[in-house]
Design a protein that fits this description.
The protein has seven helices and seven strands. The protein is an alpha/beta fold and 167 residues long. The longest helix is centred in the middle third of the chain and has 10 residues, at 92-101. It is globular and about 45 Å long.
């Protein structure tokens, strides 16, 4: 299956962005994606949801998604319209939850070179990120085919339902 490119504006965050910064515990009384989306990254940047646009990309430093294993974090990011997250490293549980929820994430050791406001294009087929602002190209290991199928389906539950239906 041909994967689409992701094109968006960059929003920068630092290292050790934990799941409580992604979606604060005070909002976990709901699992409704649209409600969670209203508060994504609120404690890291109170204006984030008002500034970002659907299709934008978060670029962070190491250990993005550390902390608890809550699935609400990638759900909130995806529902808010974040197209992808790029960081040198991700907490392992967040990494798996992101694919299970259909949120593409990319490990890029040079993520610190990408600035807030830069326009980037992620080519999932070729494993490249082009910074349209600086003109620099970065390489990453492409997402394995099975995990790309999870993203294409919109997450593990949709993938499983499609498999049951024989699609």
């Amino acid at each position: 299956m041909q994967k689409a490119n992701i094109n968006g504006k960059v929003w920068r965050f630092g290292k050790d962005i934990d799941t409580d910064l992604i979606i604060a515990a005070r909002y976990l009384s709901t699992s409704v994606p649209e409600e969670l989306a209203k508060h994504v990254m609120e404690d890291a940047d109170p204006e984030f949801v008002n500034k970002m646009s659907r299709g934008d990309v978060i670029v962070a430093d190491e250990n993005f998604g550390c902390g608890s294993s809550r699935e609400h974090a990638p759900i909130a990011l995806k529902a808010a319209g974040v197209a992808a997250v790029i960081a040198p490293t991700f907490a392992r549980i967040f990494y798996r939850n992101s694919f299970n929820m259909g949120l593409p994430i990319f490990e890029l050791k040079e993520s610190a070179e990408i600035a807030e406001g830069d326009e980037i294009s992620i080519d999932m087929n070729n494993g490249t990120i082009i910074n349209k602002t600086s003109g620099k190209t970065y390489s990453f290991t492409p997402i394995p085919a099975f995990m790309q199928e999870l993203i294409d389906a919109g997450g593990l539950m949709n993938f499983a339902q499609n498999e049951i239906k024989g699609k």
